[in-house]
Amino acid sequence: MRNLYKLTFFFVVPLFVLSACSTGFKLGSYEDPYENVNRKSHELNKVIDKKVLRPASKAYANALGQKPRSVISNFSENWGLPNDLINYTLQGDLGNASKTTGQFVINSTVGIAGIFDPSEKLGLKARGTDFGETLHRWGVAEGDYVEIIFLGPSTERDAIGKVADLLLDPVGFVFDPWQSRLRSTANIGNILGNRVALGSTIDSVLYESADSYAQTKLAYLQGRRFRLNPEISEVYSDPYEEFNE
Amino acid sequence: MSKYLIKRRQFVFSSAAVAFTGAASFGLAASAKDAEILVGKLVADINAVISSGNSEAVMVGQFEEIFRSYADVPTIARYALGNDARALSKSQMERFTKIYSVYVSHKYGRRFREFIGGKIVVQRSRPIKSFFEVETLAHLKGWEPFTVSFLVSNKSGKLLFFNMFIEGINMLLSERTEIGAMLDKRRGDVEKVMKDLEKSI
Fold first, then answer.
1. Could you tell me if residue B114 is inside a domain?
2. Is the complex ipTM more than 0.85?
């Protein structure tokens, strides 16, 4: 009963809030009512990256070679798969749900608790998903753009999705404290590893552009919309037509 | 004799059709297939540079060359300026285009340098409005393959690409945002923007 109350509070209430404040899928909109607050979070996130994430990722890359880094990332990603499976199931995407299951079973057994990724060689690899995507498939609009301290760019819908993913994650219920600590450590390693891999792309957006906030927002919204809806993510503008106006 | 006549009539009709479509698209008829062939050549050139093993400086120079021969640089430059382009004199616009083309090709050249060890493969093409979209898939080491789309048009008088989408991220829009922010910071002074763009090259 108490669980039901929790469920109502975390899912149903925000869903109503979301559907009340956002009307339909705003194709290609970049409106930004929270810009003032967002810009402040952005500046803070830049400081966090510059002082912590970026130097830590460099130290990580210096300390560990490509092989051990990928072992850590594989482990981290493998134990995120049950959460993907729940989301694909909620989305009614049985193809990806079974792919994710296969991937998880093979990597957890043959791949020794997920430190190797043999499923990739078998072509058994679903792209990742999250509760934000589940909400999208259920018809929830993306809401407004938000930049969250520590977590970075998001939308109202995807921010709720992130909270839901934390609460839904089945592995968290099964792991004992020691296993959870190991997993959290691997997750941090995975974050550092991604910062290494995306190094110069992130650097160019954050430190080399004239307005890093605007570039981050643009890249996030377009990338996210393309991922969720590749066919109609963008209305193609025609510069030749624009010049003739 | 009658066979010959029909053939001739068909010939007259089809050449009239070609002339008509040609006139409609500024004297140059193109198809999605032509756009696909262009992008095929473009990615073949990029792949050759990626696998050449040349130094970074040489590669950026080669990408600059590729950009110049396959992209409609004046259109990209003008779009990046947005409405401010209207206030520029003809000579200013020419200078801006020149500086901008070096700046932008270096910027994206550096990006493509990260593709070392990977390759880009053309997937499909389709007409949209008055232009064509050619979708390619970039296979990079350690990454899931991702989509890079090129928009191709012959409105400049030559078949060239005028926009590029990396996983849905619109190059023209990023560029307009960037140049717009630069102009804002310099109170709309395009001369200052040009000076700073030149410095950054």
1. yes
2. no
